[in-house]
Write a structure and sequence with these properties.
Strand content: 5-15%
Number of domains: 2
Strand order of the largest sheet: 3-2-1-4-5-6-7
Helix content: 40-55%
CATH architecture of the largest domain: 3-Layer(aba) Sandwich
CATH superfamily of the largest domain: 3-Deoxy-D-manno-octulosonic-acid transferase, N-terminal domain
Length: 421
């Protein structure tokens, strides 16, 4: 009954979903493409029973897609005869899989969660098994997979206290969905406990796969190129910033860092905001360049906008200090693990619920420091830029911190293998 009511609600919201796509397309025209996939209509012929088996991963957007990198490599080794299909919900997630995997994988949008669309998806692609990255519970999708006898696993699962409360508002529906999964691998013991409290059974703590991501050699070479273009002056990075944060950072840099010659590199989380952030900097009178210009950075340039996709490792490795976006305002923080792995000193704001345990441990071991606000961020940046020894120590602790937490991919792969068997 709970899923029946849920399905009626999904059907009622489909017209709103169309309007939402049109609204989002005002700033990101990619939302106008591939509409048929969102309703269970796909190009090309259906996969036949004699074709190479399909291994399907669902990664809703950018973070989940990037986190899948070590798992994809391990799955290719374990299941060499399988083709790989990615499903996404956002154009940026889709673009990220293109940048990371190219034509080695197929990618589509996951349909909206109606039972008929999910059945059509499963009939068309005939996946041997499916993996949902992090936490995306779609009750009709899970029901369709059980109906088809296809194992579906939730891997690298994380569940913040806020998200757990939202799911708890629909206890019967959430419990049915969780118990329809073939296996669940959680990032931390806290995540496992929250999933268990919602009705999940047999949750395994496998760790965070993001710790297993290694900087590709091409990214490290690009970092050297970027650093050469920056020149000899200090560089600090505001990485994966979210709406509202850039204005605070720019104002604080103008107010507290006035006269400092360090280069501030800002990489907004969402590409549709590149122009907006550039405009914010120019309105404040900053001398501006863009990464897309592919040019050396002038000594008079104060702000560089990182308007590129798939280069975050290079930006981290080329910076003296990195601030982790999404933590200054209440977005829950973006991923700090890549910065730690690059040995870049980390500054992080008060909002860390999406990476709570990683943030706690990074701060405790000295790889990261907390900032209270934008002005404090700039003061700490200036202090660290003047303190080579502290920066080196933080960088070394960051590398050690990342190394200590490796191994989640192997545990996740074993969990999947058991579920598939």
């Amino acid at each position: 009954m709970a899923r029946f009511i849920y399905t009626l609600a999904v059907l009622a919201l489909l017209p709103w979903a169309l309007l939402h796509l049109l609204w989002r397309a005002r700033r990101q025209p990619e939302y106008l493409r591939h509409w048929g996939e969102r309703f269970g209509r796909f190009g090309g012929a259906e996969v036949t029973a004699t074709a190479a088996p399909t291994l399907w991963l669902h990664a809703v957007s950018v973070g989940e897609t990037r986190a899948a990198q070590p798992l994809v490599a391990a799955l290719r080794e374990r299941y060499p005869g399988h083709r790989i299909l990615f499903t996404h919900m956002t154009p940026t997630g889709r673009a990220t899989s293109e940048a990371l995997f190219g034509d080695d994988v197929e990618r589509i949008y996951l349909p909206y969660d109606t039972l008929w669309a999910m059945r059509r998806f499963l009939r068309h692609y005939r996946p041997a098994f499916g993996l949902i990255m992090e936490t995306e519970l779609w009750p009709n999708l899970i029901a369709a997979c059980r109906e088809a006898g296809m194992p579906l696993c939730l891997v690298n699962a994380r569940l913040s206290l806020r998200s757990a409360k939202r799911y708890a508002a629909f206890p019967a529906l959430t419990r049915e969905a969780l118990r329809g999964l073939a296996a669940i691998g959680a990032q931390t013991a806290d995540d496992a406990a929250r999933l268990g409290a919602l009705g999940a059974r047999g949750v395994t703590v496998t760790g965070n796969i993001k710790f297993d991501i290694e900087a590709p050699s091409a990214q490290l070479e690009l970092a050297r190129e970027l650093r050469a273009r920056y020149g000899r002056r200090p560089v600090w990075l505001a990485a994966s910033t979210r709406e509202g944060e850039e204005a605070l950072i720019l104002d604080a840099w103008q107010r507290v860092g006035a006269g400092n010659t360090a280069l501030l590199v800002i990489v907004p989380r969402h590409p549709q905001r590149f122009d907006e952030v550039a405009r914010l900097a120019m309105e404040r009178g900053f001398a501006l360049q863009r990464r897309s210009e592919n040019a050396s950075v002038a000594t008079t340039t104060q702000i560089l906008i990182g308007d590129s996709m798939g280069e975050m490792f290079a930006f981290y490795a080329a910076a003296d200090i990195a601030f982790i976006g999404g933590s200054l305002l209440d977005f829950g923080s973006q991923n700090l693990i890549e910065a730690a792995a690059c040995g870049t000193p980390i500054l992080i704001g008060p909002s860390t619920r999406n990476f709570a345990e990683a943030a706690r441990e990074a701060i405790a071991c000295g790889a990261a420091r907390t900032i209270a606000g934008a002005d404090d961020l700039v003061r700490q940046v200036l202090g660290l830029l003047a303190d080579d020894a502290s920066r080196r120590a933080m960088g070394e602790e960051g590398r050690a911190f990342a190394e200590r937490h490796r191994g989640a991919t192997a545990l996740t792969l074993e969990l999947i293998s058991r579920a598939v068997r």
